[in-house]
Amino acid sequence: MSANPNNRPTWLQYLANELIAWREHRNLTQEELAAKINYSPSMVSMVETAQRQPKPEFIQACDNVMDTSGALLRLYKELVIRESVPDFVNRWRGIEESASGLNTFQLSFMPGMLQTQEYARAVLRLGLPTASDEEIDTRTLARIERKKILTGNKPPMYVAILDEGVIRRVMKSVAIMREQVEHLIEMCELSHVRVQIVPDEVGGYAGFGGPFTLATLDGEEIAFLDTTLSGHVVEDPGHVAMIRNRWESLRAEALSRSASLKLMKDVATQWTL
Q1: pTM for this entry
Q2: Helix, strand or coil for residue 75?
Q3: Residue 54 has pLDDT above 90, yes or no
Q4: Strand ranges for 40-145 from DSSP E
Q5: Among residues 177, 198, 182, 184, which one has the least CA distance to residue 259?
Q6: Using one digit for the tens of pLDDT, what is the confidence trace for 140-172?
Q7: Cα 229-234-239 angle, rounded to 5 deg
Q8: Residue ranges of domains in the chain, CATH in brackets
Q9: 3-state DSSP assignment of residue 27
Q10: What does the angle CA 156 – CA 162 – CA 166 come to, to the nearest 5 degrees?
């Protein structure tokens, strides 16, 4: 794999250089490392020459064998996120990480913060039907990494309002949906996570305008609008106020927290039958 036009190392080359440095520091040949991690020497060679994108399992095995305290996997995850996530998402990611509160509405899919790995993979595959398996893997990893915001030392207050179809619509398989809804219920046990459902009987409502997220940052609100091809960060006070009004309308239509949890448990039971 050649360097980019600006003669700066690609993320794969950067990762390869770190892997080589650790291997040589541990006085291992490519063949010796390959034998210890149960991969072929050719695989190690291709990774070290940036001709092959490794999976997390490969990097984890290298960390374990070379006793790096997880340094390579941490680097891999950070590089993958930077490479696979568009600039506008990286900007929003920074806002998410600094926010004291996140209010999100989703009409069709589970919010990224609440997705399981297999559900995330299924959603990404649906949206990127021609993408390679490697690209889906990297985007899935990037999405799952974002979830750590909810389990960190200072998580934001996170409120999600979902259309009932989100928890009832089969995403690839019943097994994936069962795991996903059960995970959703587990997340609701966290004191800073609330999920409310807009039931089918409501009919038409403000949510049909599309998904969005409101972030509270330093006492002010910033919005993010999801579209099929991209996303848009909204900071204009007037536009943010309009989105806030939509949020209040959605809250008025949604079931209470306890009624929503009961519905989720009922649906989870149906997925197990």
Answers
A1: 0.70
A2: helix
A3: no
A4: 101-106
A5: 198
A6: 887 887 888 898 888 999 999 999 999 998 888
A7: 120
A8: 11-82 (1.10.260.40), 87-272 (3.30.870)
A9: coil
A10: 125
